[in-house]
Request: fold
Amino acid sequence: WALTKGAPEAVLPLLDPSSVPADYAASFGRQMSLGRRVLALAYRDLGPAGAGGWEKSPRGEVERDLTFAGLLVMDSPLKSDSRKVVRDLRAGGQDVVMVTGDALLTAAEVARRVGIVPPKASCYELSDGGRDGGFVFRELGRADDGGGGGGPSGEGLECGAANYAALRKMRERGSAAFCATGDVLTRFGLSAAGGGGAYRSAAASSSDDERHVLQDPAARKALADLVPLVSVFARHAPRHKEAVVAAFNEAGRHTLFCGDGTNDVGALKKAHVGVSIISVPDVEKKQRAANETLDAVRAEDKKKNRKKKTDAGGRKSARGGSAGRKSRAERVEESLRALAEADDELDFVSLGNASVASPFTTRKTSVRCCRDILQQGRCALVTMLQIYKILGVNCLVTALVLTALHQAGVKQGDRQMTAEGLVVAGMFLFVTRGKPLSKLSPRSPPSSPLSSETLVSMAGQFAVHLMTILTVTFMADLYRDDYDPSSVPDGPFNPNTLNTSTFLVTVLATVNTFLVNYRGRPFMQDLRENKLLYRSIQICYVVIFACALDIFPPLNQLLQLSTLPATGPPAENLSSNNSSLVKNMIAESVELLGYRTLLCGIMCLD
Reply:
């Protein structure tokens, strides 16, 4: 006997026409349009064993004039969280498409269920045979239309560069979803590559030449214009999947591809981010049953909370009706135990070829890992960018302060530098403790520390700190004594007003840099949610202003800080620093408000 199974449209040419029922195409089309997988079964009586030498005959000689035996219909339930993950990704501004080897009608219906195709959108299939030999999108029938979920019908929508803008608007409005099969994409690429005659026959003769057609520069450019319109890619072989991902890359998209099998290896390697998951039907079935039980228990709890029993008889009847059923606690316990056992079983599943080709692999059967990678990746990117900004601004501030101190012959104390280093190290540690948000934002963070947004921000921050440091340096210069031993460049360290003021302003600028550059929402936890960083910033502010006001003298002594002046500057210094209007205004402010008060005011402004 010759026993054959395969896709209904592929088995049909092998069948004996007299055995094919009249509703063959309508039957498998309707089942596919319900999201089910369909295989056609056929057989042929080859006679007694050994007779005819069938074992050595080519496959084409054996698989012909087969007798149709029936259709095998399989229903594969969706993963429990696929719909939610797709909804979250789309809400986060991501374009989600399906690339599968399943039949087009099956893929389109599954895509509609998970939210890739809008509920009310009409599905159109790319097909050739349009006007002037071009390609068109023809509408697909659906099972609920009464047409049996058949193939494309009507004249359709013209598929050409001039019509792409209109098709894109239809897709964005949610009124249409476009689909394409691998064979049609190959013919589309061949047409774009100018394939005719010898090229067309060569491409049709072997899969290697067909793959070369998809990699042709002209074909890749045409596919790059087409694939952003398509939501469902069905009946795709591995080479087709790889070509689709390459076309998205060619179109300037950043691609993340999630797959679980060997036929996804090429696409996983071609994508910017490849994610490998495992496929274990038995474990998935156990997880699905446990989750369904937990959902049923939650639904019952909600129903009981809403419904109030009115009489004792009703309560008695309810108890009697559920006496033979397991208690709520037993059902919940069994479901949780089943989920734990399923997770343990996944740890012992051997990883396949897809995990070798992808940079990311998860021992889960859910596509939730795609959302997790985006959340973690955005959080890591934002953290890296804010660290670059903090380092850049702090380096500029430190260089400016050291220059001002060097010109005045003043140094910084060892304890001061140690304290500042500890503060910076601790805050950098706390910055990295920020966690990603559970919800993806439609906005995308800057992709480079050299972006205009980052550079303008750093320039603005440094300008503010520059004005603060110059003002404080001039204020301290009003109290400088040319015969002060602390101004000897090579002498021992002695704190003075200039050293103390610039140290306080430097630490304040450092803390401010952490404060203003912490990005927070919409990519990671807000500053108030990052408790360690938030509390450390508050403590630093309290310590800085306590030192400036000399509230706790032992703290100033520990940090090698001098007591700041409580009176106005010496008269001789005022008379010698009247070179400009701004300096005169600063000197008058110091004399009017006092040094400590004005310093605290400037630090608050910074």
Residues 143-148, 196-208, 316-324 have pLDDT under 50 and may be disordered. The first helix runs from residue 8 to 11.
